[in-house]
Amino acid sequence: MTEHPAENQYPTGIGTSDLHTIQVLGHDLAGELMGRVGFAELAYWLATKRRPTPGQLRVFEAVLVSLADHGFTPTAIAARLTLYSAPDSLQGAIAAGLLGGGSRFLGVTEDTGKYLHDVLGGLGDTDAYTDVDWDAAARDALTAARAARRIVPGLGHPNHKEGDPRTPVIFAIAAEEGMLGPHLKLFAALGRVAPEMLGRALPLNGAGVAGAALADAGLPLPMLRGFALLARTAGLIGQLAEELESPIAPAVYDEVDRHVLYTPPVNPEN
Amino acid sequence: MTEHPAENQYPTGIGTSDLHTIQVLGHDLAGELMGRVGFAELAYWLATKRRPTPGQLRVFEAVLVSLADHGFTPTAIAARLTLYSAPDSLQGAIAAGLLGGGSRFLGVTEDTGKYLHDVLGGLGDTDAYTDVDWDAAARDALTAARAARRIVPGLGHPNHKEGDPRTPVIFAIAAEEGMLGPHLKLFAALGRVAPEMLGRALPLNGAGVAGAALADAGLPLPMLRGFALLARTAGLIGQLAEELESPIAPAVYDEVDRHVLYTPPVNPEN
Amino acid sequence: MTEHPAENQYPTGIGTSDLHTIQVLGHDLAGELMGRVGFAELAYWLATKRRPTPGQLRVFEAVLVSLADHGFTPTAIAARLTLYSAPDSLQGAIAAGLLGGGSRFLGVTEDTGKYLHDVLGGLGDTDAYTDVDWDAAARDALTAARAARRIVPGLGHPNHKEGDPRTPVIFAIAAEEGMLGPHLKLFAALGRVAPEMLGRALPLNGAGVAGAALADAGLPLPMLRGFALLARTAGLIGQLAEELESPIAPAVYDEVDRHVLYTPPVNPEN
Amino acid sequence: MTEHPAENQYPTGIGTSDLHTIQVLGHDLAGELMGRVGFAELAYWLATKRRPTPGQLRVFEAVLVSLADHGFTPTAIAARLTLYSAPDSLQGAIAAGLLGGGSRFLGVTEDTGKYLHDVLGGLGDTDAYTDVDWDAAARDALTAARAARRIVPGLGHPNHKEGDPRTPVIFAIAAEEGMLGPHLKLFAALGRVAPEMLGRALPLNGAGVAGAALADAGLPLPMLRGFALLARTAGLIGQLAEELESPIAPAVYDEVDRHVLYTPPVNPEN
């Protein structure tokens, strides 16, 4: 408790404010950003400290739209049940919904981006790669994954077994915008070679292609899950607004409560 | 446990999916929404089940931008400390940051919207109101609040004591877009009459005007806090991305740890 | 940014540590507390900075046991769904379960304690009160609540319509331990006079009597919800341990997913 | 959406209720558990579906006491900041505090238990092991960890560099209660051989020995982090009760706010 420095400092490049102005990212929030910069644009900028190009922004928005809502997912149901139990705390219901954003559902976006990044890290310069090169790289990657008994993220979907409808649209938008980078190209190659390598078609799922597209659009890998969570926040607000109007949580609770199969532990000493 | 209906049903108008398509709000997500609808536009639509007009959308985006980040707020610090403690769970750090979105900070947006709505509910038809009428209504409202010893939300700001720079910009954007509705007009009147009624200028703060603008833009009152939380999610992602690059949480922890003043309870029987 | 004091200080009476010792509540954690103080005893002590008497402790433990688990509540289901979605983050699943600890379910404990405290505040000295006096006070309180159209917390239970089995046990334990204080006495009187005042029996529910008992046992009113949450944390750990062995979350998700009734908004312009 | 089974069932062995009774773990909550079973005892029982022996319970309570509070940890500060921001939602502040219960701080308990379990799985029958055998096993484990560049959890402590005061107490209590099982014995051996193997003393930390003791006391490995979270819930309630009386969150916020070093991104095009 002795070595107190002359003065602590807490550095940030995001924002600060004084009596008359609010600075965000080096700009005057009121005079330069509000009404001139879109919300998704600002979200990109905050995460990267770079303003997106129009192409990056269009891909980013398309990905956010693709991830915003998937109907009655476990996380949407959890958020609705939480609002039912604690209607006074909307932030708690949203937080509960986001807390399900882990490895099984929302994690695919991040896992895919990181996986592709790792594979790319072993490839050297891919600027001149043709599809044939990408396919060779994808075969090597699948061989390595099989040897390591590692699952390749982003392949296959529990419902969209014949192809996730979001996948070709993200590829098309990225192509239109000149945003088909190495992550998307490698991911496409994985989809092409998967049938021959794995003995069955495993379509590229939309959460995985989202991760590849975000990486190519310049978003930071450690935050990819965060963008899935941002998108999902919009979806959860929709779910919770609907829950207030037309609740399902009481019916879910009732369904479970009516069909409890109670099988207590049978150790007579307990 | 007897009256099981023939079949449960869980109604929703938000989304569903089958083998080949994902429906969101009655539209094909891949074919009709991705790349064509912006993220903020979809967020509005999910919350209201109405697609925003261009004017509603511009106000909505401006408000989200205004609320996204306020620097090192207590919630931003809490999120950073949580990431420091649990770096493996980005969703937990975001959730921790959102959980501070309660009455003291983010609640102002919702509280102001609801307060204005309540006052408007007692006014009858205000379509032909002039500024003089609005000022009279505002005086009545402040008189009633004083009698009830109730604080009027949205007035005053701890830092921007001479005026919140966001306030005039939101009014200006709403005016440009034809979105100056009764909530904003009443709120403006409250600002005009506050000095004479309260004996001091209490500038309209940006969180309060955000609530008024969202209400006039057609967003549902019970969800106003939700939009502040959506905006803040983008800000928290920025804060957490920066924390990964340039952490402050260890310094905050160290600062507190070095300056603990330990004063244990002195009851000798304990 | 000018007036930096010579040194910040962060006072606490809970704990601190240095190279060789950890202090908790003025005691050496390792030498004086571990193995000598029970966990519930420490929880009481931390919350109040007073070590509980044996009677206070027995009531406290009985209340925690009474609140620990209520089967498949909405919060338990939400926690299980969250673990299913994010199996890597046990803390997230527990947090999601606790976030439902709001007004509708767990809030009753706190609401009842506070309500009784408020009524007692208007009664003056009740040391010499007989049951007749308490009944009179209870009648006045119910009359006042009716006039204010205010619901009295802790009365009635959705399932235990003929009496909550926990209620008489808590009263009996409190009586055995000399812990029948004014909160429990007033609550008992409310139960006695409710039939004549309200025209029907409204049994005192277990969550409400828990609040009264905690207040009489010396726990702070603003934290009563916290003890319900502490108890529930133990229940949630049980629910989640069982979920790992014998999951129900996939079946809940499947139930809802199979019975979606999709009714998208029908506005043709959208 | 076709194959609806005749009836869903949701199995549980924890609890259920009907009009007159509440069952927990096969016992009548009101008649058999309340007032007769302690809170920590019930917590153990819920997690394992086995009632603890007196020795298991004493170790369990000692471990919970050891983990309940560590002063102004980052999680305690985060919880206090959250309560400051959202004073209306105690459950949110507790949840925010628990969300920091991840790998860096609370994770050690679980990581150590699992690590020891993994090593033990490779040893075969250790019933007749002497200290010499355990030391040999520990040397092999440290060699393997070094080869795999894997950190051994539970060794070393940032503050208690000369020994964590909790460690010998947990070993002593376990020995008194006949609860020195293979996890604790292996962990002790790791502490003995660490200096010769690693070239420096790395004391066994209290969070690690907690994990070993919980495993020997029969608690399930996947839930070890959960018990650290249960203990911490009691600590957080203490922290938050104190925050209500004697807040530090405003000072933490003020400290950071006064010492912001704003360094916005300098790209002129942005």
TrEMBL record, chains A, B, C, D:
Gene3D superfamilies: Citrate Synthase, domain 1, Cytochrome P450-Terp, domain 2. The keyword Lyase applies. SUPFAM superfamilies: Citrate synthase (SSF48256). The keyword Lyase applies. GO terms for molecular function: citrate synthase activity; lyase activity. Pathway: Carbohydrate metabolism; tricarboxylic acid cycle. It is an enzyme of class 2 (transferase). Its EC number is 2.3.3.16. GO terms for biological process: carbohydrate metabolic process; tricarboxylic acid cycle. Keywords: Lyase, Transferase. GO terms for cellular component: cytosol. InterPro entries: Citrate_synth-like_lrg_a-sub (IPR016142), Citrate_synth-like_sm_a-sub (IPR016143), Citrate_synthase (IPR002020), Citrate_synthase_sf (IPR036969). Belongs to the citrate synthase family. This is citrate synthase (unknown stereospecificity). It comes from Gryllotalpicola protaetiae.
